[in-house]
Design goal:
9-stranded antiparallel β-sheet, 3 domains, alpha+beta, about 475 residues
Length: about 475
């Protein structure tokens, strides 16, 4: 009897151990299952809910791009492409792809049957729209995006192949798959220059009509010629050039072979940027067209962030191929209306000063008075909009000395390393036809002012028309 009881206890213990082992294996497989095997609507990749994958690659139309997450923080991924271009990944695009993969829902699982080739072809998976590889928790999965499933149920046919034997599975999934059929290059950071305009402190332009070096003066926050006459550079032109360069986006990245083919001949222009930190130099070459995309231009960036790409650069091409004189500032003043704190005009024996106050302006002079904001800004706008004709530095006029007591002085808010920024312009006497000569003190540049520009030098605010009295006579 004791032997029978002992045998029953032993058999029971073995049964409990077997059940426990089976449950453990089931749970382990359940927890480690990265791809859903359910026929009911469920997430295709439930493990992506726990964080982004380690790596992604996509192949479409013969091109493959692979990006790797270099961060250990699942909340702050840092993506970088290691094939075929070594550059940063586009965080927004990759996040959108990961979200799309995470939210894919299985509508139904397909039984492929014995006619594998025929069924795969009918599902659009023999020539998929795109093929993805997803590195997830140490496992590699291949996802092929096929054709649209017929209505009314709809969805998209996909094929998933995992690392384990017999892991090839076919599903119909629901969800927006547009991010899974993008061009592989979209995974790359599209900006060719990862800088901002304020990073650039020196710039050299080499083109057929311009061989110049420009230097940023930090104390005056303005660009000047680094050699020659050291004349002031057009603020609007330089700001636009630096903005366009630092926001230039590649539409197609080029392999070394494509790069060599697309840049046959000499470059239209070359720009060398010298950055503020560590005096790093970055060269940007511009070529006329871009191989298979003749409507685009080829840009070749040399340096630590070297890359070659096709980009739409009509504005840049125009600016970089302009003649050197067109870059010289032909305005009297480089400050903008809202930057001016005060200005003083000493002209033809008359002195007037306009000073900005909290709710308007104070006009000092023969008839001191306060004027409203609109009237004051109108005066400043007229003054800061004055253009003149640049005078040849070798001419006799450019060698003349204008009287120091005929001048206009503009003061603006804090700029660069100074407490206050000033620009002084000396003005010559009125010539025939009300024309004048003017000289910018900041760069000793002479300008010829026509009658219209000369008339804007005088501070003459428009007074409001007197209102008719409503009282009866």
């Amino acid at each position: 009897m004791k032997q029978i009881r002992r045998r029953l206890l032993w058999d029971g213990a073995l049964l409990v151990l077997a059940l426990a082992s089976g449950i453990s294996v089931f749970l382990a497989r359940r927890c480690n299952s990265l791809v859903s095997t359910s026929d009911t609507p469920t997430l295709l990749f439930p493990s992506l809910s726990g964080g982004p994958p380690h790596g992604l690659s996509v192949n479409r139309e013969g091109m493959t791009v692979r990006v790797v997450n270099q961060s250990t923080d699942s909340d702050s991924p840092v993506w970088r492409a290691d094939s075929p271009w070594n550059r940063e990944g586009d965080l927004a695009t990759i996040d959108s792809v990961v979200t799309t993969l995470r939210d894919l829902q299985v509508v139904r699982k397909l039984s492929i049957g014995p006619q594998v080739t025929a069924n795969v072809t009918s599902y659009g998976l023999a020539r998929p729209q795109s093929t993805w590889q997803i590195e997830l928790n140490g496992a590699l999965f291949t996802l092929k995006v096929g054709a649209d499933a017929p209505q009314p149920r709809g969805g998209t046919y996909i094929e998933v192949d995992g690392p384990s034997p017999n892991a090839r599975q076919f599903f119909v999934v629901s969800g927006d798959i547009s991010q899974l059929t993008l061009q592989p290059e979209r995974l790359l950071e599209s900006r060719l220059l990862p800088y901002v305009p304020s990073d650039v402190r020196r710039l050299r332009v080499d083109s057929e009509r311009n061989h110049s070096i420009y230097q940023f003066d930090t104390s005056r926050a303005r660009w000047f010629e680094a050699n020659g006459q050291h004349r002031r550079i057009s603020r609007e032109k330089m700001e636009k050039l630096l903005f366009d360069l630092t926001n230039l986006k590649g539409e197609h990245f080029l392999s070394p072979l494509d790069d060599d083919q697309s840049k046959r001949g000499s470059a239209l222009a070359t720009v060398v940027l010298e950055l503020e930190e560590s005096r790093t130099k970055v060269a940007v070459e511009l070529y006329q067209s871009c191989g298979k995309w003749p409507e685009l231009s080829t840009f070749r960036v040399s340096g630590a962030k070297g890359v070659a790409a096709c980009a739409n650069a009509q504005g840049l091409a125009t600016a970089l191929t302009e003649a050197a004189p067109s870059w010289i500032d032909d305005r009297l003043f480089s400050v903008r209306t809202d930057e001016i704190e005060s200005l003083r005009v000493d002209l033809d024996g008359h002195s007037v000063e306009l000073e900005r106050e909290e709710y308007g302006f104070l006009l000092s002079g023969p008839q001191p008075r306060r004027i409203d904001v609109d009237a004051g800004n109108e005066l400043l706008q007229a003054l800061t909009s004055i253009h003149g004709k640049l005078v040849d530095p070798a001419s006799e006029i450019a060698k003349a000395d204008l009287e120091a007591n005929n001048f206009i002085l503009v003061r603006s808010a804090v700029v660069g390393a100074t407490d206050r920024y000033e620009e002084r312009v000396l003005v010559g006497p009125e010539q025939s036809g009300s024309q004048r000569w003017a000289k910018r003190v900041t760069d000793s540049t002479f300008l010829h002012l026509d009658a219209k520009a000369s008339s804007s030098l005088k501070l003459e605010p428009k007074l409001p028309m007197p209102q008719p009295s409503s009282d009866p006579l």
